[in-house]
Amino acid sequence: MRVAAAILLIVVLLAAPACQMNERLSGTVFGAIGGAVLGGVASGGGGAVVGGLAGGLIGYLIGDYMADQRERGRGSVFGSSSDATVAGIRDEPAHVKAARTAYERGRAAKTAPEAKRWYLESLRLNPDRPEPYNLLGLNALYAGDLDAAEDYLERALTVDPDYRPAQHNLAKLRRELIRR
Prior knowledge:
Layout: H1 2-15, H2 23-43, H3 45-71, H4 83-90, H5 94-108, H6 112-125, H7 130-143, H8 146-159, H9 164-179
Helix pairs in contact: 1-2, 2-3, 5-6, 6-7, 7-8, 7-9, 8-9
């Protein structure tokens, strides 16, 4: 019975990422459930608690990695890049490489003002990517500047109308503005 439950759980956990949930949330939920079930099967109640906590943390980290890859436009985490894609990155213009470097420095920044400075630099070098606009929108949102947040998120969607993170963030911001 334990083996059947474990196999069923593994199948569910492998199929679940196909759902349209946020990767971080789904990773946390499925990791916690999987860890709790496997911990409970292996060690009883105490193992279920420890397994759930460990599985949730690991699931979140995996989900965060997957979301990061998607947000950077790298497509499937499990798929492989074609040679044309790799060559395209290698052969891109210097200003695009510099913009990507500034964007990455913004993502690695320790403070919101530092991140904002790098995102603005990225846009100065290459205004044709939605990611810096989206993150500037979030930066403004967390600083309490809702008008600037809305403006940046709208600009992200002007650059790429199909950019899902900006669509999600703008919809969430507008729901919040309606409540006020």
